[in-house]
Amino acid sequence: MDEVLDTSTAQQRFNVLLLGVFSIAALLLAAVGLYGAIAYSVAERTREMGIRIALGAARGDILRMVVSQGLLLALSGLAIGAIAALAFTRMMSGLLFHIGAADPLSFGASALLFAAIAALASYLPARRATRVDPTEALRYE
Question: Distance (Å, rounded) from C-alpha 71 to C-alpha 75?
Answer without folding.
Answer: 6
